[in-house]
Write the structure tokens for this entry.
Amino acid sequence: MENKTGKHNKSQMEIMGLAVIIILLSLGILFIIQFTVNKEPSSIKKTFTQTQLASNMLSSVLRTTTIDCSGNSLNNLFKDCAENYNSPNTQLRCQNNQRSCDYLKDSINFIFSSTLIAWGNQSFSFEAKVPGQVILKSTNGKCIGEKESKQNYIQTDAGTLTLIMDICS
Amino acid sequence: MDKAQVKMTETIGVMFVFFLLVIFGFVFYARIQASNYQNTLIEENEKRAVEVSQRASTLPELQCSSNNIITDSCLDILKIESMSNMFKSSQDLQISYYDSFESSRLIVKQIYPSKQEWLIYERTTNNTGFFFTPIPVSLYDPINNRHNLGILEVTYYPIR
């Protein structure tokens, strides 16, 4: 009688052991499947688009010729604004009576609202600064996480004007 | 006889469970492969969309140049107008550019100082999915010697 009970206990223990192994194997396979199936495809296009947006936007904007500011390019207006930021009376005055810094601000805001914001509210940050001073800043949304950043430099009498364009994910 | 029958039943039971597990394994493997295939297809289509965008933005027929020196991120307005008119009048030209642009739509939109747009190329499919890539460009007006701001919009329609 005791032998039979002992044998039964042994068999039960063996079955339990097998069941535990099968459960552990199943859990492992489930984890592997979860990570393999839910893996997102790499976003080649997103990276390319953001890089193009950042670099091309900056260079194209600087090259743009104004319509009512004596035919100056935005590059020249940035330079004038940086050099005369602290003395607005000496800033270039455009045909529409705006000073160069104000004209720049309006133009930049118009350009970004017609492009980056219009295309699905793209988050971005644009900053123009000389050593010790930010002369223009335009942002949309919060720029946290990954971002594509491009910089451009303009030599001015007030130091190197750095323009930074960040396109955020 | 009874023992043999029990053994046979046992064996049949084990084989049944074994084949059931094999079938489950195949089904899971097929699902994983299908998911991987979908991801590969999306990546492949994205690569093609990027290629088409790069070709469009560096097309010599549209790029600004002076004394054979090409200006980056710049398209010549006169060249754009000319190409747009040629595409409207000649279907053969659309076919000859199919190798470069496949099924896509290329539009140049001027946003500053005034709004204007030119359709450069269009060959679409019945597919509902597409990849949209906007590329900011400078639009050079050689007559007035000024640069306007524009966007080259590339909409790529994947074939599969």
Remarks:
- Chain B touches chain A through 34 residues (CB under 8 Å).
